[in-house]
Specification:
Chains A, B, C, D, E, F: It comes from Verticiella sediminum. Chains A, B, C, D, E, F: One of its GO terms (cellular component) is cytoplasm. Chains A, B, C, D, E, F: Belongs to the transferase hexapeptide repeat family. Chains A, B, C, D, E, F: Keywords: Acyltransferase, Amino-acid biosynthesis, Transferase. The structure is a homohexamer. A 5-stranded parallel sheet of chain A has the order 3-6-9-12-15. Chain A has a 5-stranded parallel sheet with strand order 5-8-11-14-16. The first copy, chain A, has a 4-stranded parallel sheet with strand order 4-7-10-13, with no helix packed on it. In chain A, about 45% of the residues lie in helices and about 10% in strands. In chain A, a hairpin with a 2-residue loop joins strand 1 and strand 2. Chain A has 8 helices and 17 strands. In chain A, helix 4 packs across helix 5. The longest helix of chain A has about 35 residues. Chain A is α/β, with parallel strands linked by helices. Chain A has 2 domains: about 150 residues, serine acetyltransferase, domain 1; about 90 residues, Hexapeptide repeat proteins (UDP N-Acetylglucosamine Acyltransferase, domain 1, 3 Solenoid), CATH 2.160.10.10. The interface between A and B is large, with 71 and 75 residues.
Chain lengths: ~300, ~300, ~300, ~300, ~300, ~300
C-alpha cells in the first residue's frame, strides 16, 4: 500500500519485468548480424530528407516563401547539400540490410552510399519533370482545382506521388528498407499506400486518395486517373516448395494508358486493364479487361 | 573517389543540379504575378488557427484543462485575440490568389482581410451551436459512445466536421485556397475529406470516417449519418467549349434529411437520396432514390 | 476603418464574442461533476506512453538504435519507469469519468491508479509474446516483406495492433476513455480503427490497413488476415424502452480462425464467418457464413 | 579491440560504473526524508513562472506585442491563471523542504501552497508599483537611456530587481529553496546575485550589473544606485558552540537612502553607509561611513 | 477552504488583480504613440539575426560543419537572404522609436528599413576583416590559445566583439533600441557589456571578459588588450538646466593604441590613457595618463 | 525603389556579398588540414554531455525527480550509455585538432576515441567523491546555505567546479579543444572561468563566483575558498626567440591549503599564497605571501 500517495512513487517491480522482456526478446529476432549491431534508418530523418528534396524541386511552395530571383538558387543549393548529406547517412544504414553485407568493408559501404546518393541527386531534374506532368494532370482532371498552387499545397495525392517517385529511384538501385519507409511516410500522412516497386507513367492523378493501395509489381501507364479506396492488389501468392511465399513474383495489375478507376474499385492479380477503359466504383475485378471497356457494379437492389 | 570517407564530405555536383532544376522551374508555373512575389499561406499557421478557434469554442476540451469559472473567459478572450490576428495575416495572403487582385491597393487588402476575419469571429457562436447539434447526433447515433467528452476527444469525425464548418464560413465569403487548406488539414489527420464548398445541415454524424469523401457541390440535410469510406462524388465533368473542365457546376449528390449511408457506399453525380432513405454498404449509386428507400448491394456469390 | 493598417491591431469585438460563447456553453454539457473540475487525459501524454511501452517491448526498433547487451536492460528499465509513472497519472484522470467516482476518496483513486498501472506493467511480457506472433504472421502473409525489421518499421498494421493490444488491457480492467483515446491515436496515424473492446486472437495481420474498422464487440480468432477498407461493423442497434441505444450489446461479427477478408469487404451484425473462409473484396455480408466458404461479389457488368 | 569500429557500439563497463556510483551515493546525502521521496522544484518551471509574472505586470513588453485595449486584460488574466497554477505546484514542492514538514498532512500542504500562492498574487500590484519607481530611477540615472522601453528590454539590472522583488515576497513568507532558485535564475542571466532575503527600498538602480553581489541580511534604502562588481557582503561569520556557522545572523551592510556605490567597490560586514554618501570604484570598506561621505581608493602608483 | 484539493483548481481572485494591474498600468508609460501601437523588436529574433550574420561571416565555425567548396557559398547566400529579411523586419520595428516617426508614411518606413538593412549587408566584408584582426590579436595575446578555431569556439570576448561590431554599424546609422538590444544579448551570454556607441579600433582583445563595461562615448585605439572586470565608465554626468541628464555628452575614456588594462581596473571620465601604457589590476583611474605609463595599485598592507 | 513594399522582397545584392565574403575567407585561416575537412565539436552536444554526466553522478538533482530505489540504477545506466556514446563522437572530432593527426588512420582515431571515453567513464566515481567534498565545503562555508539540495540546485560555483573537474579529466589525457569548450559552457552559465588545465584540490568552494578567473597553470590546494571577481592570473608572458608567446609555461599562482581569497582580489604570476593565508577584497597581489598571512587593501581615502 502506497503510504504517501502524492509524495512518493510506487514501485513497479521493474527487475522482474525487465527479466521477462529480456527472455521474450531472446526467443525472437535480434537486429544483429554476426555480432555487428545494425544502426537502423531513422523515420524522422527520412521525413526530413523527403521534405528537403521536395523543397529543392519546388522551392517556393515546399521551401520558403520569401525567395527571390537572387536568392532561390542559394536556397536550392544549401537545401540539397544538407539533404544529400543526410540521405547518404541513411543510405549507409540501409545498406546494412543487404543479405551480402558481410562481404563489404567499411570503405566499400561508404563509397556505395555516396554513389547511390549521387544517383538520387542526378535524377532530381527528371523526377521534377514527371511531377510537373502529374501536376498538370491534376489541374486538368479536377474541376475543383483553381490553381497549380492549390494542388501543390492541398492535394494529398500529389504528396504521395512525389514521395513514391523519389522512393522508386532508390528501389530501382536495389536499396532495401529505405524506399518502403519513404512511401510509408506518405501513407501515414495521406492514406495512400504506393509500393516503391510499382512502375507508374507520367501524368498520374490520384484524387482524394484515402485508402488507395498500389502493389509492388503494379505497372501503370500514362495519363491514368484513380480515386480514393482503389486497390491494385495481388489475388493470391505463389508458394515455394517449402511453403514460403515467393518474393518478387509479378502478381499485381497492369493498367494501360488513359484508364480511369473510380472510388472503391478493387483490381486483383496480374490482370490487364486495357487502354482507355473506365472501371466504375466499388467493382471487384479479377480478370483482364479489353481496351476502351466500361465496367460497373451489378445492379443494386431495393430491399 | 572519396579519399577520406569518414572525415570529409563528398561533392554532389551542386552547380549542375541547381542549373538543371532552375531550367526545369522556368518551364513551369511561377508563383508570381506581374512581378509580385506572393507569400503563400502557411499550413502550420492554419493548423494553429484551427486549434485556436476550436479551443475558443470548447475551452476545457481543446484548450486547457485547469480552467475555472473565473479564468475561462480570459482564456477564451486571449485565445481569440491571438488566433484572429493570425487568421487575419493568413487571409491577407490568401486574398492575393484572387484573380482580380491586381486592382487592389495594399490598404484595400488590409481592410478586406480585417473584414473577413471579423466575419469569421462573429460567426463563431453560431458555428458552435451547430457543432453542439453534431455532438448530440454522435452521442445518440453510436452505442459505443459513453460521454460527450469521449466524442470531443476520440471521434475523428467531429474534428473533420469542426474544421469543415469553419472552412465553410471562409468559403462562402469567396476566399480562395484557405478553406481547402483547412479541410485538407482535417483530411490528413482523420482520413475524412470534406470539400469546404459542401453544404451540410445540423446534427451530422460521421462514424469512423476514414475514406469519406464529400464533394464541392454536395448538399446534405439535417440528421444525416454516414460511415467510413462513403463517397459523395461527381460522376462526370462538364467540359467547356475549349475542352477544359467547367468549374463550380453542380455535380455532386443531394442527400436529404434523416438519411443513413453505410460503409463503402459510393454515390455519384447530381442525384438525390430522398428523405429518410438507407443506403447499404458498398453500394454504387448513380441514380436518384425516392424518400424512405432502402438500397443494398446485389447478392453475393459463393464461388 | 483601420487608420494605421500595418502598425496597429484592429479590434475584434471580443467582449460580445466572449459573452456569446459563454452563453452557448451554458446551454451544453459542462465537464464538471458536482462541482469538481475534471482534469482530462492528455492525448499528447498518451501518445508518449504508447511509444514508451512499445520501446520497452521492442527497444532496438522503437527505442534507441545504439543499444548494446550491457545497456539494453537499463534502457528498458528507465523507459518503463518514466512511462509507467506517466500512465499512472493518466489513469487517475481517466478514473474520474467512472460513473460512481463520487464515492471515491482521493486516496482510493491514487491506489486504484497504481493498481491498474501495475496490471498493465505485468501484462507487457504476454502482450509482447502475442505481438511476436503477429509479426510472424505478417512476414509469412506478405511476399513483399523482406525482414522482421521492415514490418516493425514500415507496416502501419503492426502499429495499430500494438496500440490495440495495449488499449485492450486497460479496457478489460473497466477503464473508461483512455483505451479509446489510445486506439484513436493509432487510427489517426494509420487509418486503422480498432475498438479497444474487440477480442482478437494471435497471429493477426492487417495489410495496408487504411479504412479498416473493427467494432467494439467483434471477436476474431487466430491466424486471421484482413486487408484495407474491411469493416467488421454493427448492422443495427438495439434501442432501450426510452428510445436510447442499448450500450455494450453484442452487435459485431465473430470471425473464426484462419479467415481471410479481402479489401473493401463489409461484414455487419452479429454474424459468424466460419473457420477457414475467404471473403472476397468489396462484398457486403450480413449473414453468417459456414466454415471454409469462399464468398465473392456478384458479377460485374459491362455497361 | 572494437572490431567493427563504425558499425557497432563499444561496451562501457556499465555494471561496474553503476555499482561504483551507487556506492558513492550511499555515502552521501539522499534527497529523502523518512522514506518520502521529495519532488524537487523545477528550475525550468520557475523560469516560466517568473516570465509569466513579469508578463502579467508589463504585458506589452514581456508578454505579447499585439495587445489592444480590448485584449490586454484577457492576456493578463489568462497569463495569471496559468502562472499561478504553476506556482502553486512549485510552492507545494518547496514546502517539503521545511524542517517540520513531517507533521503536515497532504491536505495541509495543499492548503498552505494555495495560501502562499494567493499571497504572491495579491502582492503583484504593489510589486509593480515599486518596479515602476525602479524604472524611473534607471531612466533618470543613466544618460545613455533613451526610453522606458529601452530599460524594460535592454537593462539586465531591471530583470534582476524584478526577479528579486518577486522572490522576496516568497522569502518573507518563510518559503525555503524557491526564492533562492528564483534569484539564481536572474544571476545566471545577468551576473547580478541578489539574495532574496535582502531588504531593498524603492527607486533602486543597478547599472551594467555584472558581478554585483548583495547578501542575505543587507538593508538598502531608497534611491540607491550601484554599479557593476559591487559587493555588499559579509566579513566574517559567527560560529555556534559546535563550530558550525550561525545562520540568519545580521552580517551584511546597511546602505541608507541616496547612496551611490561605484564599480568594483566591496563593502563587507554589518557596517552602515550613511545617507547620501558616495563610495568610489574598487574601494574595500569594512567600517561604517557617516552621512554624505565621499570615499575613494588610495592614490595609485606610477611604477 | 479548497474542498477537493487535487481535483479542482482554486480561485485566484483574478478580477480584482486584473483591475489593480490595469490601474497600475494607467499611471505609467504606455508603449503607444498618438494612438499607434508599436510593435516592439523581438530579442529572440535579434539573437537569430546575430547568429545568422556571424554564420555568414564564419560559415564553418558558426554555421554548419559539413560545408564544402561547392556548398559553402550557397550556405552563405541562403543564410544572408533569410537573415537580412529578418533584420529588415526588426529595423522597421525599431524605426518606430524615432522621435520624428509620426511624420513618416508606411512606405517611407519600408524604404528606410530596406536602406538600413542593405547598409548592414554591404558592411559585412569590412566587419569581417576587422574581426579577423581581432582573432589574430587574441591568438597572439594569449599563450593558452592553441588555434584560431579555439578562439572562435571558446572565447566569449570574441562573441562580444563580433556582436558589438555589428551593433555599431546600426548605431552609426542612427537606429534606436536595436543596437542596445544586440549588445545586451552579448552581455547576457558573456558578461561583457560594450555600448554599441563606443568606437573601437582593430586588433582588439578582451580576455576572460566577465564584468567588462565599455561606455557609450569610449574611444579605443588599435591593438588594445583588456581583461575581465575592467570598467571604462563615466565619472559624473552633466545636467541640463532642468536637472535632467544631458544625453550623448562625451563622458567616457579615450584609450590610445597599444594599451593593456589588467583585471579589475576602473577608468572613469573623459580621461586619456596614453599610447602604449599599462594599467595594473584593480586600479581606479580618474585622471589622464601619459603615453607609455605603467600604473599600479598602492601597496597592499599586511594586517 | 521597392515598388511593392509589402508583397515582394527586396534584393540584397547577394552575389557581390557572397563574393566579397569568399575573398575575405581566402585571406584567413581555413578549418582544413591537407584537404581534409574537419568536423568541429558541437557546443550543444557538449552541453548535453555535461548535463548527462552530472545527472549520472547526481541523478535525483540533475536527472529526474521521480526516481526510486528500483529505478535509479536504470536511469544511471541508460544516461551513461547515451552520454558516453555522444562523448565518444565528440572526442573523435576533437582528436582531429591534434598536430600529428595526419599520421592517424581512421581506425586508430576510432580506437583512441573509445579509449579516452572509457577513461572518462572510469573516473566518474572518483570525480563524484571529490565533488561531494566540494559540496560539504560549500555547506560549511556559507551560513546562507540551508541544505545540500540548495547547493546542488542554486549555487553556480558548484556547476562551474563540476564542469571543470570533468574537463580536467580530458585535459590530462591531452585532448585539445574539448576541455576548453566544456569550461567555457560553465563560464557562460555562471560567469566563472576556470581553465581546464588548472589543478584544484578537494573541498573547494567558490561563493557567488561571477568574474572569477583561474588560469591554466594555477595550482590550488585543499579546503580553499574564493569569492566573486577573484583573479588567479598571469602577470607577463615569456616570449620565444621569434617573439611568439611560449605556451604551457607555469605562469599562474600556487594557492596552498586552507587559503581564503575575498571578492575582487587579483593574484598574478607564479607566486605562492602560503597555507592558511587570507587575502582581502580588491587587493592586487604580485608577490608570494608566507603561510598564515592576512593581506588587505591600502587604506581608503575620504575625498
Amino acid at each position: 500500500m502506497p503510504s504517501y500517495p502524492d509524495h512518493g512513487q510506487p514501485d513497479w517491480n521493474l527487475s522482474a519485468l525487465i527479466q521477462a522482456l529480456r527472455t521474450s526478446r531472446e526467443h525472437t529476432h535480434k537486429v544483429r548480424h554476426r555480432g555487428r549491431l545494425r544502426e537502423l534508418p531513422s523515420r524522422a530523418v527520412l521525413k526530413d530528407i523527403l521534405q528537403g528534396l521536395a523543397a529543392a524541386m519546388f522551392p517556393t511552395h515546399y521551401g520558403e516563401t520569401d525567395l527571390t530571383d537572387e536568392s532561390i538558387d542559394h536556397f536550392v543549393g544549401n537545401t540539397l547539400n544538407r539533404t544529400l548529406n543526410l540521405l547518404r547517412g541513411q543510405v549507409r544504414r540501409g545498406l546494412l540490410f543487404l543479405s551480402d553485407e558481410d562481404a563489404w568493408t567499411s570503405e566499400a559501404l561508404d563509397a556505395r552510399a555516396v554513389e547511390i546518393t549521387r544517383h538520387v541527386a542526378d535524377s532530381l531534374p527528371e523526377v521534377r519533370a514527371v511531377l510537373v506532368s502529374d501536376l498538370r494532370a491534376a489541374f486538368q482532371g479536377d474541376p475543383a482545382a483553381h490553381s497549380i498552387s492549390e494542388i501543390l499545397l492541398c492535394y494529398p495525392g500529389f504528396v504521395a506521388i512525389t514521395y513514391y517517385r523519389l522512393a522508386n529511384v532508390l528501389y530501382k538501385l536495389g536499396m532495401p528498407l529505405l524506399p518502403r519507409l519513404m512511401t510509408e511516410i506518405a501513407h501515414s500522412a495521406t492514406g495512400i499506400d504506393i509500393h516503391p516497386g510499382a512502375t507508374i507513367g507520367h501524368s498520374f492523378f490520384i484524387d482524394h486518395g484515402t485508402g488507395v493501395v498500389i502493389g509492388e509489381t503494379t505497372i501503370i501507364g500514362n495519363r491514368v486517373r484513380i480515386y480514393q479506396n482503389v486497390t491494385l492488389g495481388a489475388k493470391r501468392f505463389t508458394e515455394n516448395d517449402d511453403g514460403s511465399l515467393r518474393k518478387g513474383e509479378p502478381r499485381h495489375p497492369i493498367v494501360e494508358d488513359d484508364v480511369v478507376i473510380y472510388a472503391g474499385a478493387t483490381v486483383l492479380g496480374r490482370v490487364t486493364i486495357g487502354r482507355g477503359s473506365t472501371i466504375g466504383g466499388n467493382v471487384w475485378v479479377t480478370q483482364s479487361v479489353p481496351s476502351e471497356s466500361s465496367i460497373s457494379q451489378a445492379k443494386m437492389c431495393r430491399d
